[in-house]
Write a structure and sequence with these properties.
Strand content: 25-35%
Distance between the termini: 34 Å
Strand order of the largest sheet: 12-11-13-14-10-15-16-17
Largest sheet: 8 strands, mixed
Shape: globular
Helix content: 25-40%
Radius of gyration: 21 Å
Number of strands: 17
Number of helices: 9
Oligomer: single chain
Order of helices and strands: HHEEEEHHEEEEEEHEEHEHEHHEEE
Length: 328
């Protein structure tokens, strides 16, 4: 798969050859994890896999008991070489990214890093002695929002929408596709991408297709970015991922009062979860959002458990239509 080849290219030669020989065909890999002196692991199909020696390395499901000599373990040099290769041997130039705990590589794949924090007062200045890498495989799924999008419009106007989802259920993938479709349908979208997951920018250039009329602020705190977009880019829709902080919510309320529609995601399992959260509960009472979209199955972006209006009334759900239906 093209995405995995982009990821494999950042590894040193020996590990590249092993991964290519082992192959990833048939897997929908979500991430690769390198931990110093520990087995290299791949997360795919809802479970963990590692490389086991069986006349060459092959992917096998993680077992509770294993012999270290059979499993490919990550050495210090491999982590160092991977960091140097993906930063083009100028890791010092990525101090700001390291302070945030991740780098983004071509293709939009995000490499999370952990190691020794270097402090400046109480603030993390950068990371040194990096010993842990988490490469999250970025994938666009164009069209994953097709069945849901008609429910997010009323009289041809886009409704302010909050996507509610537990981790790992594809909320960012769905958000990205909705941004693209809304933008291509004619609305100006301003997206604040605090953690470089929506646009997956690499050196300031989005790697993902966010539509014809989308303006993106990459690596910018959500609250500040929302205000900047309103002042400078006149968006009709403001899009953000994983809201929660009071400042973020107040900035969204300001955007709504300025006439913008909202498109956001939040961690949760149900609309009732959101009602119980500070400030967000107030948003529900004030009907700041007029659509709530609760995601369902893990690993299936666009698969909703239910869609609710601003009053909390169920517009669509499994008890009304069969799973996978819902085209309006």
């Amino acid at each position: 798969m093209e995405e995995m080849e982009q990821v494999i290219r950042i590894f040193p030669q020996k590990l590249r050859e092993i991964l290519r020989t082992a192959g990833t065909e048939g897997f929908r890999a979500e991430e690769l994890r390198l931990r110093i002196s520990q087995p290299l692991m791949m997360r795919a199909e809802g479970r963990d896999w590692w490389l086991k020696m069986e006349k060459g390395y092959v992917w096998r499901p993680v077992e509770e008991t294993w012999e270290r000599k059979q499993i490919y373990c990550v050495g210090e040099g491999e982590i160092r070489d991977t960091l140097e290769y993906m930063s083009r041997y100028s890791l010092y130039a990525f101090d700001e990214e390291l302070r945030q705990g991740f780098l983004t590589i071509p293709g939009g794949h995000r490499v999370g890093v952990a190691g020794q924090a270097v402090l400046e007062g109480s603030r993390v200045k950068t990371l040194r002695n990096i010993s842990f890498l988490n490469i999250r495989v970025a994938r666009e799924i164009p069209g994953c929002g097709d069945q849901l999008l008609p429910w997010l419009y009323q009289e041809r106007n886009f409704c302010s929408t909050l996507i509610i989802s537990a981790p790992g259920r594809g909320k960012t993938t769905l958000l990205r596709d909705l941004i693209r479709q809304i933008s291509d349908r004619g609305l100006k979208v301003g997206a604040v991408d605090e953690r470089s997951e929506i646009g997956a920018c690499c050196q300031g250039k989005p790697q993902n297709n966010l539509g014809l009329r989308t303006d993106l602020l990459d690596g910018c705190p959500k609250a500040e970015g929302i205000m900047m977009l309103i002042r400078s880019m006149s968006p009709q829709v403001i899009a953000v991922d994983e809201i929660g902080g009071k400042e973020d919510l107040e900035a969204l309320r300001y955007g709504k009062n300025c006439g913008c529609s909202l498109l956001a995601t939040v961690h949760g399992n149900s609309l009732e979860d959101i009602r119980k959260k500070p400030v967000l509960g107030e948003f529900v009472e004030e009907k700041v959002f007029s659509r709530y979209l609760v995601l369902g199955s893990r690993g299936k972006p666009g698969r909703a458990e239910g869609i609710f209006d601003g009053e909390g009334n169920l517009l669509w759900g499994k008890n009304q239509l069969g799973e996978g239906e819902g085209e309006k």
